[in-house]
């Protein structure tokens, strides 16, 4: 139990383990109250989750990260990412998405490696420059909504379904009753 640290009150059961430079942080339960909330307000609660990361080199950004949880609200996950040592470009992408909804049975891992090519080739759509991304993500999406930073991708509202993906391929099985897509510049204005 803690007071301060950006929250009015935090209660948690956390275990931290490591194997070499890989750290695992697992919480069985986490509850908090914001600083601006009255001291007698009910604590917000989140169930179990695990974060995994490789310790970065001195003055370097995180290059390997993982997260798993049986269920988490996107808004809560976004709050956590603000306090993780994620690369600035990824933190900015998460903040700009303004995502909402719920993820169930989520399992995410990514590793950012230097490209095996002798010269970094700038890939404007990836935002990773000369880096190569190894990504694995599986999750059930429940009423997911987000804004995309890329003109080639649609913004989404009320998406429900299952996502399985790697950096090379993936599948999205839809089960949405009220899915809405906003595709920028799809039909240009004839003016």
Tell me what you see in this structure:
The chain is mainly β and 191 residues long. Helix content is 9%, strand content 52%. Strands 1, 2, 3, 4, 5, 6, 7, 8, 9, 10 and 11 form an 11-stranded antiparallel β-sheet that branches. Strand 1 and strand 2 form a beta hairpin. The chain is globular. The protein starts with a strand and ends in a 9-residue tail after the last strand.
The major sheet is characterized as: 11 strands, antiparallel
Low-confidence stretches: 1-6, 117-130
Q: What separation lies between the terminal Cα atoms?
A: 61 Å
Radius of gyration: 19 Å
Please, how many helices? 2
Strand proportion, as a percent range, falls in: over 45%
Order of helices and strands: EEEEEEHHEEEEE
Q: What share of the residues lie within helices?
A: under 10%
Question: How many beta-strand elements?
Answer: 11
Which word captures the global form? globular
**Mean pLDDT, as a whole number?**
79
Q: Based on helices, strands and strand pairing, what is the structural class?
A: mainly beta
Lay out the secondary structure.
Elements: E1 2-4, E2 7-19, E3 22-34, E4 44-46, E5 49-54, E6 64-73, H1 74-81, H2 88-97, E7 100-114, E8 131-146, E9 155-166, E10 170-174, E11 180-182
Antiparallel strand pairs: 1-2, 2-3, 3-4, 3-5, 5-6, 6-7, 7-8, 8-9, 9-10, 9-11
């Amino acid at each position: 139990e803690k007071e301060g640290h950006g929250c009015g009150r935090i209660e948690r059961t956390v275990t931290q383990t490591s194997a070499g430079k890989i750290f695992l942080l697992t919480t069985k339960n986490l509850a908090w109250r914001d600083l601006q909330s009255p001291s007698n307000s009910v604590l917000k609660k989140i169930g179990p989750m695990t974060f995994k990361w490789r310790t970065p080199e001195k003055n370097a950004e995180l290059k390997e990260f993982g997260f798993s949880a049986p269920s988490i609200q996107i808004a809560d996950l976004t709050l956590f990412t603000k306090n993780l040592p994620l690369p600035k470009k990824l933190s900015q992408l998460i903040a700009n998405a303004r995502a909402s909804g719920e993820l169930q049975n989520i399992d995410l891992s990514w590793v950012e490696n230097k490209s095996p090519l002798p010269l970094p080739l700038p890939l404007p759509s990836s935002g990773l420059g000369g880096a190569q991304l190894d990504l694995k993500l599986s999750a059930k999406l429940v009423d997911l909504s987000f804004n995309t930073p890329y003109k080639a991708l649609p913004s989404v509202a009320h998406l429900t379904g299952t996502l399985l993906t790697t950096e090379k391929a993936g599948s999205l099985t839809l089960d949405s009753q009220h899915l809405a897509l906003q595709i920028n510049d799809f039909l240009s204005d004839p003016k």
